Fold this protein.
Amino acid sequence: MHSEPVASRSAEPRGSRESGNGTPHLDAVSLAIIEQLQEDGRRPYAAIGKAVGLSEAAVRQRVQKLLDQGVMQIVAVTDPLTVGFRRQAMVGIRADGDLEPVADALSAMPEVEYVVMTAGSFDVLAEIVCEDDDHLLEVISKRIRALPGVRSTESFVYLKLKKQTYMWGTR
């Protein structure tokens, strides 16, 4: 996305630091590094450095700091169907009371890949990746519906993965 080196537009210390609310504050260079890695997670640090105007060593340090702060992860993204997980679903959950314990319990389940607390028809949405229909049924019926506070669930079974991208940039 950035073809020329990006200079820091801030008078604040360079890199990423924590803002007053506990969220890391990212300068323009850190954001540009993230965008470079979103385009290609295996892009060499030297190439990133050239694009953002830093040395390879400085990029390596910035990337490690972003990883340590939990700002980003560098992972291989697969189509679950192609690696043996034949059933994927989004499960909408209606719950009573505090949603945090429900979201925490869902997050601890290895089949659950994504958990978000929402406003609207559902209190929590959870994306589940399973080996087959029996496995999905077991996760929903015996584990999710058994959680304290869960009132009801609605499942949206994926028939085909059409688009899965993490290229939204840093805006």
Remarks:
- Confidence is low (pLDDT under 50) at residues 1-14.
- The longest strand covers residues 87-95.
